[in-house]
Design brief:
The protein is mostly helical and about 80 residues long. It contains two helices and no strands.
Length: about 80
């Protein structure tokens, strides 16, 4: 179902989603845009990572994607 490269790509995307969400929440809290405590920021970030994994699975198994966890099919000649 998932090759080694697909699992690595999915993990990279999930880690990036977690980090980006955490930094966005902590950054906007520091700027006074939102008020969120650290535990809530961690929980929201982990949910973003989980959604990234679900999206990767849907891309591989769904009708749109292909062998990689992207929703876009890329041509190799470009």
């Amino acid at each position: 179902m998932f090759s080694s490269n697909t699992l690595k790509d999915s993990a990279e995307r999930a880690v990036a989603a977690v980090c980006q969400t955490f930094l966005a929440l902590v950054g906007t809290d520091g700027a006074g845009v939102v008020s969120i405590d650290l535990l809530d920021a961690v929980q929201a970030s982990l949910v973003a990572g989980l959604l990234s994994v679900v999206k990767s699975y849907a891309a591989v198994k769904g009708p749109i994607g292909g062998a990689n966890p992207s929703m876009v099919t890329l041509d190799d000649d470009e």
